[in-house]
Amino acid sequence: MSLHLKLTFLYTGVLALILLVFGSLVYFFLERNLAAETDRAVVRIAEDLLRNTKIVETLSLRQIVLPNVDVFATPNTYIQVVDRHGLVAGQSVNLGGQSMPLSEETLRQVARGVGFYETVMSGSQSLRIYNQPLILDNQVIGVLQVGRSLGPIYSALTRLRFLLLFGSGITLLCTATLSWFMAGQALKPIDRITEAAAAIQQARDLTRRISYIGPRDEVGRLAETFNRMLERLHRAYRELEEAGAVQRRFVSDASHELRTPLTTIRGNVELLKKMGDTDPETRAEALGDIAGEAERMSRLVADLLALARADAGFTPAMGPVDLGALLEEISRQAGILAGDVEFAADGAAALQGTLVNGNTDYLKQLFLILLDNAFLYTGPGGVVRIEGRQQDGWAEVAVCDSGSGIAEEDLPKIFDRFYRADKCRQSSGTGLGLAIARWIVAQHGGAINVESRLGEGSTFTVRLPLA
């Protein structure tokens, strides 16, 4: 069953229940009121008759002297006086010579001296009779009966039942029609949303949105929520596509980077197998190449492992780190790597005693990556230096070199994995160092940026929040 039909049945059913309860209450109270009014009417007539009835007592008998009962009778009201023996002493003309029913049980109840009601059948009509005992000297000498036909009441109640049923039927029919129309109007925006969603699904176009023009009611909020969901899905799908492209490029680059040293190692091994010990000098060169490529593969695998841990959501343990002491230790190690490059770490003294919240091992790896790149791309006689300063709640460490610099078009891509500028592709680097450096900085809540001009050197600046 459709929601449209369910709402129609719901509205009609609720109204039907209300009409049933209301009609039943109206019928019940009207029936009770009419019955009570009939009882009050016959009692009033009986009381009026009693006030005008005389009981005459002679020496030998008692005689009931009645007023003109026809004065008190109406077309539907009948009056009858019966003595204690059950003989009719008088009656209204509208009885037409007939007598109102009087049973032995009625006479027994009259003997108790208390007035009472009874409903009896007289021919084809139902009568409501009030029996009022006539008492003289505490002795019942007769009974006054005032009866009223219940036919008009039954006719009125029959007409009322017809009106209630007919009116309720017409009302329910109109309500069902109106409910069907109103439910359709209320659900029309939902139908449009469903059609738009189906079209989006069929076209697989997450850039489309549901067009809704109307108040910001439940349907409006539904359309707005659906559009926000589509926006999130589109963004997630786009990120997934980008991640898939990066992953494919990563696998391709990793395969290429690993294939080159493996090819070199395999070629040298084949050479050694063919040559044997006949040429010690060539053998030494081949072994040197194998060792160099194996070392390069070790660095590549270590870098890949670090990035894999980063992709898996690894978070290093953090604690207070004295950045000045850490840079002093790194400077001692970097002095060995500098070779023919002039290295100056005096600028790091400004960070002595400066605390940051970080991981010592990863921060050391970060700065060694930057220094290693600086030494790698700075020729003999060039200068590499470390500078440090505090500014607005941040500690800044700059690694500056006077090397070959980076072309402007390469700057936005140097932190991408496996990316190396064309002039650097012949170097021994893996293209992963700066990607790892960016991840380490991000884990520490900092930022890294680079300023460089081709042929004038580069400056990498790391900003870390103070502890």
UniProtKB/TrEMBL annotation:
It catalyses: ATP + protein L-histidine = ADP + protein N-phospho-L-histidine. It comes from Pelotomaculum schinkii. Keywords: Kinase, Membrane, Phosphoprotein, Transferase, Transmembrane, Transmembrane helix, Two-component regulatory system. This is histidine kinase. It is found in: Membrane. Pfam families: HAMP (PF00672), HATPase_c (PF02518), HisKA (PF00512). Residues 253-467 form the Histidine kinase domain. Its main location: membrane. Residues 184-238 form the HAMP domain. PROSITE patterns: HAMP, HIS_KIN. The chain crosses the membrane at residues 6-30, 162-183. Its EC number is 2.7.13.3. InterPro entries: HAMP_dom, HATPase_C_sf, HATPase_dom, His_kinase_dom, HisK_dim/P_dom, HisK_dim/P_sf, Sig_transdc_His_kin-like_C, TCS_sensor_his_kinase. It is an enzyme of class 2 (transferase). CDD domains: HAMP, HATPase, HisKA. One of its GO terms (molecular function) is phosphorelay sensor kinase activity. One of its GO terms (cellular component) is plasma membrane. It comes from the Bacteria.
